[in-house]
Design brief:
mainly beta
Length: 69
């Protein structure tokens, strides 16, 4: 089932996963430079977390815009 959630908007995927009752750890993938995420936050990978039965969800935005300081 988790393969079907890849590239789905994170909010929708989290709703689908919460029905299973697992704790979800969300990791936001981001660039190494200062940036703001643009577009939709999407699921990139879902796998079992190291703690046991919990799930680890890696998510990232459609694109990123560099922020100049």
């Amino acid at each position: 089932m988790t393969d079907q959630l890849v590239l789905m908007p994170e909010v929708q995927a989290r709703r689908a996963l919460q029905s299973d009752g697992d704790t979800i750890h969300v990791i936001l993938l981001r660039p190494v430079f200062n940036a703001v995420g643009c577009g939709t936050l999407r699921v990139l990978r879902i796998r079992p977390a190291k703690e046991g039965a919990d799930l680890e969800v890696v998510a990232g935005y459609d694109s990123y815009e560099r922020i100049e300081r």
